[in-house]
Amino acid sequence: MKQLFWIFISSMLVNNFTLTLFLGLCAFFGISNKIGTAIRMGAADTFVLIMTSFVVWILNRFILGSAPYLQLISFIVTIAALVQIVEMLIKKTSPTLFREMGIYLPLITTNCAILALAIFQTNRAYNLVEGLVFALGAGLGLTLALILMASIREQLELADIPALAKGMGIILIVAGSLSLAFMGFAGLFSS
Amino acid sequence: MKPTMAREDLINPIWKNNPVFVQLLGLCPTLAVTNTLANGIAMGLATFFVLVGSSTLISAFRRFIPNEVRISAYIIIIATFVTIVDYVLAATVPGIHKALGAFIALIVVNCIILGRAEAFAAKNTVWRAALDGVGSGFGFIIVMLMMSGFRELLGNGTLLGYHVLGMHWEPWVFMILPPGGFFTLGMWLLIFGWYRSRKAAGTKPRVWPNRATLKVERSTREEVTV
Hints:
heterodimer, A: mainly alpha, B: mainly alpha, about 65% helix
């Protein structure tokens, strides 16, 4: 139980996928301009992460033992299929959300966070429950980073920034400061 | 006419249309594995190989890949090249392979590669696609050098492990930690923005990235531009 708790905290805060491990930055910078969209994107990401964790566990347990060189290809195909399912699901249930997420929805396939989760989970030999907790933590961490960034960017719209720094420059500096703040969590483990 | 076009295919993505600094693609490896120059170079070369290989192969197969499943087909081709790189690096330079860790496998989802495949290789001849791959690969290597050189120099006082700034240099440890990556890239973007607005003095400095184009991209969903 304690082990699970630490896996959760570690993947959500200490090793935050976005701000400390630099995973999933395209979506992080691309879709973090409104809080509402950021939350929904985070939810979609979390869902795909958890599903991936489950499927990857099955793959590792039953199939990949005899063919490790197929690892990468099978992971990415699995993820692509999962994202396709999520995309169809959202398109059917909420066309507005589908329109809002636009290009970034199919791009979850190429979100490094998802593939990285599959690889980390394999390298660390997590069992099913540990893997799912890891995925949930990672997803929540990602969502947290997205929401923080979106809140700041909504304020930035109104702020008086030099014309030069507008756009990506200032956003990267803000992300750097956020990452600096998240480094404070690194102390959690020594206690 | 023809040689000019070929030269543009090669030269354009290196600087004018640089994949990272201008198109803002492939940010994950740019920030994650640029803490030392050696890592940066290894990552740059690995990506270069995958980019050239997959661009060429995708362009060669462009008539046989059905439009509906093209992205999956591209990704499988890319994943094959990445698996090759992964095994070659593990066999030849195990130390660097270990330092890069999961990021070698993550070349598969580097948006630069899929972006070039979709935007260029799928529509052009093998020769042009290969040139474009070489150009984009060089562009990426340059970015990796600029990022990792700067970060290692300030963060450790060294370049490739040699003390450049003298033994008394107090390292800015912060530069090789995660926030340093964000700040370094932000700084380069600011410097280029400043240079651009200087160059275009008299006219209005360009806002970067252009809000209007972002909106257009989001609304034209059927065009999968990565």
